[in-house]
TrEMBL record:
Belongs to the TRAFAC class dynamin-like GTPase superfamily. GB1/RHD3 GTPase family. Keywords: GTP-binding, Nucleotide-binding. PROSITE patterns: G_GB1_RHD3. It comes from Manduca sexta. InterPro entries: G_GB1_RHD3_dom, Guanylate-bd_N. Residues 1-118 form the GB1/RHD3-type G domain. GO terms for molecular function: GTP binding; GTPase activity. This is GB1/RHD3-type G domain-containing protein.
Length: 491
């Protein structure tokens, strides 16, 4: 077996030793008085056994020379017999059954192999071997040694070459994956299509360098064919990264839109959008800023066409906001006008009318009620002197009040005429100048009674204010003198 590895070392050597450490571990050493147990005795014994003398054949001499040529270090260690109890059937592995000398030697042997200062990375072909690479080597060597025949050095060499290529291939693929995952992997923001292709090209270059940096064995054609397979495999992975990047980009757009909508919703709450135009512009600017920040945190590019197109669409949301805001403001204006009308209507019974002073007072109260109703629907209080929707509401209320004033005046005028007619009828029933003659005091009484009846009839359907005595319609009725041209007959 030693000869086999020496022959392999001859094939594998390339300006460096093929192997690292060779330890000759001798157990059950029976001559501790010649060479003591442990590393010192082992080194002494090894030096004697590897000496070259005239009695050795050429092969034996070559073997001894090659051992020191193909190994960085050659060591020896002598172990005592563990004790005869270990060979008995009832031995269960307990340490107290093992000889103290054996356990003492173990305390020297184990640290010499596994102590931190003695552990060195495994090298094959002059390069450190990673754990994942070591798996490939174990698997390869198990396959060639899994028989009753000792393999040829060439077979081991070929197997090592294949394992080295597999390790180089894995290193190149891992390098590609690390570069791509670091720039546009699942945990990274989406990027532009150009940036993705640039990252792919950079990752391929890193994979090529990683492959070239690994020392490889075997014919150059096999190495070139292996690298061609690697490139084909890595080129095919671009499609999956493109699909992943597209999904992340769509997710970035969805999240940015949600950030925009959440900003608007934060102001509106459960209510509908209703703002002063200035507040709407400020809200839109804040929503665009939040949406842009969200998008940029999920998309790693600042000048690609897709980003610019998305931001343009985000800016365009102001049109929809303005339309919604205008519709809602107009809707609440109509509701406020209805509140104004209902407030006036609830202040008077059917068929009744106001004095003009009271109508103006009720108008002022109803107007404030309507304005308060409208402002209560605003998402943000605004005290700016100019508000087109408030101005529209006030204009509509003013027009409505003008109509009410005209209607009320006509109602007052009709009521005055009716009261005057009632006055005349009352006097006519009590006195006729062609038939009766009355004492002047009685005539005055008839006039006063008729006037009071007319006033009572007039006021029965009229709602007066606190200053009703100054009302022109009432004064007009009080001053009625239908019989002023009559001559009083005296005796």
């Amino acid at each position: 077996m030693l000869q086999l590895f020496v022959e392999y070392g001859k094939l594998a050597q390339d300006q460096e030793t093929a192997f690292q450490v060779l330890m000759f571990l001798v157990r059950d050493w029976p001559y501790p008085y010649q060479h003591a147990y442990g590393a010192v005795g082992g080194e002494q014994l090894l030096a004697k056994r590897l000496e070259i003398n005239a009695s050795h054949t050429e092969d034996m001499r070559d073997l001894r020379k090659s051992i020191y040529t193909f190994f960085n270090a050659v060591k020896g260690f002598l172990m005592p017999h563990p004790g005869f109890s270990v060979s008995e059937e009832k031995f269960d592995g307990r340490l107290f059954s093992i000889r103290d000398e054996f356990k003492k030697s173990l305390l020297d042997l184990v640290p010499s192999i596994f102590g931190p200062e003695n552990l060195t990375p495994k090298n094959i072909n002059g390069q450190p071997v990673k754990c994942c690479d070591l798996f490939y080597y174990f698997k390869t060597y198990m396959n060639i040694f899994n028989s009753n025949e000792l393999p040829e050095p060439v077979t081991i060499m070929k197997a090592t070459s294949e394992a080295a290529l597999m390790a180089a291939e894995r290193e190149a693929c891992d390098m590609y994956s690390r570069v791509m995952e670091g720039s546009c992997g699942a945990r990274q923001p989406s990027v532009s299509a150009n940036q993705l292709r640039s990252s792919h090209a950079h990752a391929l270059d890193c994979a090529r360098k990683a492959f070239d940096a690994r020392k490889k064995m075997g014919p150059q054609k096999e190495i070139d064919d292996c690298f061609a397979r690697i490139i084909n495999d890595l080129e095919s992975r671009l499609a999956s990264y493109e699909a992943l990047n597209d999904a992340k980009f769509k997710s970035a757009i969805a999240n940015a839109n949600k950030a925009y909508e959440d900003t608007v919703q934060e102001v509106c709450g459960d209510a509908v959008l209703c703002l002063h135009p200035t507040d709407l512009e400020v809200l839109h600017l804040k929503a665009v800023t939040n949406g842009t920040e969200c998008f940029d945190s999920l998309h790693n590019s600042s000048d690609d066409e897709e980003r610019n197109a998305f931001l343009e669409r985000l800016e365009g949301n102001i049109k929809d906001l303005r339309n919604k805001n205008e519709q809602n403001n107009l809707g609440f204006i109509m509701k406020a006008q209805e509140d104004y009308v209902m407030y006036i209507a609830n202040s008077v019974d059917v068929g009744s009318f106001f004095s003009e002073s009271l109508l103006n007072k009720k108008h002022s109260e109803a107007k404030q009620h309507a304005l308060h109703s409208f402002r209560s629907h605003r998402n943000i209080d605004n005290d700016e002197p100019e508000d087109p929707y408030i101005e529209m509401l006030e204009k509509n209320i003013k027009e409505h009040h003008s109509k009410n004033t005209l209607i009320n005046r006509n109602a007052n005028r009709t009521a005055v005429q009716a009261a005057q007619h009632a006055y005349n009828n009352h006097v006519a029933r009590m006195w006729s100048p062609e038939v009766y003659c009355l004492h002047p005091d009685d005539l005055c009484k008839v006039n006063q009674d008729a006037k009071n009846a007319a006033l009572e009839d007039f006021m029965s359907n009229r709602i007066a204010g606190d200053d009703d005595d100054e009302d022109p319609d009432r004064k007009k009725l009080i001053e009625v003198r239908s019989f002023s041209p009559l001559q009083v007959i005296t005796y």
